């Protein structure tokens, strides 16, 4: 049974459905990310879980308890906002202690739990420091400690790392995941960053225009995208149009195996890193451009089936030059086939 259950949750603003009938079950201790572009409904969904936005239809249950009539402050949730929302006139310790004070926790216990929370996020010794004297990463840690110190039923994270630079963001992803695993806190993250979602999550919920496009592990949604949107939103992908029928898929003169249920116009999707240069077979292509990116080469191609990108790891060997004629191949299991405009494998 799901610990957090979203049952046909809908939010309308006038005639516009920001969230339209989504269903999601989150198990206890799971880390789930709501991933999608701006305006897809992910933040509205998080706000409905938190109680800041009222549902138009559906229900949200936490451990079997309907949250419809439960005030935000009584839901037992820890929340980290994009802006961190720290009190500038309070020290780190005072910021972390605030939620415990509101709950009437005794001073001795409060001080002990604040110390534990700050140690957990690597800020032992920073108790007396004010937010203005802390870096963005340190402020983010204070906000996380403040959310965790109340021992929340669920931790809600609203784009918490988006204000950090790339290097610090990667470091905080590792730390955040480790903290979550150590504590076992059920966590729901809202993000538009595909890499962040894949690095942190047990499962990813890909949202688009108020609905869920796909739910799965990071590997599932990346390796087997259920729609064109998922394939294109999670990293780079190559898509080629062909025709399926009789258990075969025809693409620019190639005949490849296909599920027997597929028939008619079909799209083949294959990730750039799963393609490779070959002496024969596959698709013919011409190298349009090649870009050196340190640990790999990114090669732009014009193939017999349309434009493509191939990513080859930098092994120190030769890479085809611009203008050179090549052939590209991929393993059948590395390609996803779906009806054009639909989904499938």
The rounded Rg comes to 24 Å
Content of β-strand: 35-45%
CATH topology of the largest domain: Rossmann fold
Distance between the termini: 29 Å
Task: Please describe the biggest sheet, giving its number of strands, its sense, and whether it closes into a barrel.
Answer: 6 strands, mixed
Number of strands: 20
CATH class of the largest domain: Alpha Beta
Structural class: alpha+beta
Number of helices: 8
- Count structural domains: 2
**Roughly what percent helix?**
10-25%
Summarize the structure.
The chain is 24% helix and 36% strand.
Describe the fold and architecture:
The chain is α+β, with helices and mostly antiparallel strands and 345 residues long. It has 2 domains: 4-228, Rossmann fold (3-Layer(aba) Sandwich); 238-339, Nucleic acid-binding proteins (OB fold (Dihydrolipoamide Acetyltransferase, E2P), Beta Barrel). The protein has 8 helices and 20 strands. A hairpin with a 3-residue loop joins strand 16 (283-292) and strand 17.
Walk me through the topology:
Layout: E1 4-13, E2 16-26, E3 31-35, H1 42-50, E4 57-62, E5 65-66, E6 77-80, H2 92-102, H3 107-120, H4 136-148, E7 154-158, H5 166-183, E8 186-191, H6 194-200, E9 203-208, E10 211-216, H7 218-223, H8 228-233, E11 238-245, E12 248-251, E13 254-257, E14 264-270, E15 276-278, E16 283-292, E17 296-303, E18 306-313, E19 325-329, E20 335-339
Parallel strand pairs: 3-8, 3-9, 6-7, 7-8
Antiparallel strand pairs: 1-2, 1-4, 4-5, 9-10, 11-12, 11-14, 12-13, 14-20, 15-19, 16-17, 16-19, 17-18
Helix pairs in contact: 2-3, 2-4, 3-4
């Amino acid at each position: 049974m799901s610990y957090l259950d979203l049952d046909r949750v809908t939010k309308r603003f006038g005639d516009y459905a920001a969230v339209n009938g989504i269903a999601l079950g989150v198990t206890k201790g799971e880390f789930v990310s709501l991933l999608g572009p701006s305006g897809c409904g992910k933040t509205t969904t998080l706000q409905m879980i938190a109680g800041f936005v009222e549902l138009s239809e559906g229900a949200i249950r936490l451990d079997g308890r309907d949250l419809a009539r439960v005030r935000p402050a009584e839901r037992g949730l820890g929340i980290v906002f994009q802006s961190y929302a720290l009190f500038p006139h309070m020290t780190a310790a005072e910021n972390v202690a605030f939620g415990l004070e509101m709950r009437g926790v005794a001073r001795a216990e409060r001080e002990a739990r604040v110390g534990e929370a700050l140690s957990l996020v690597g800020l032992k010794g920073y108790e007396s420091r004010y937010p203005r004297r802390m870096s963005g990463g340190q402020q983010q840690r204070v906000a996380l400690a403040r959310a965790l110190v109340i021992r929340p039923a669920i931790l809600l994270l609203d784009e918490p790392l988006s204000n950090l630079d790339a290097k610090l963001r990667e470091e905080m992803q590792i730390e955040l995941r480790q903290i979550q695993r150590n504590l076992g806190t059920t966590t729901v993250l809202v993000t538009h960053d595909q890499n962040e979602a894949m690095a942190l999550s047990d499962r990813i919920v890909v949202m688009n225009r108020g609905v869920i496009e796909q739910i799965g592990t990071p590997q599932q949604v990346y390796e087997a995208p259920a729609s064109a949107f998922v394939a294109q939103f999670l990293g780079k992908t190559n898509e080629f149009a062909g025709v399926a029928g009789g258990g075969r898929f025809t693409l620019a003169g190639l005949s490849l195996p296909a599920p027997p249920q597929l028939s008619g116009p079909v799209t083949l999707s294959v990730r750039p890193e799963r393609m490779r240069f070959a002496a024969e077979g596959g698709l013919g292509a011409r190298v349009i451009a090649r870009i050196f990116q340190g640990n790999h080469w990114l090669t732009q191609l014009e193939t017999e089936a349309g434009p493509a990108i191939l990513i080859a790891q930098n092994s120190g060997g030769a890479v085809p030059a611009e203008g050179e004629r090549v052939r590209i191949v991929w393993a059948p299991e590395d390609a996803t086939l779906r009806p054009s405009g639909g989904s499938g494998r």
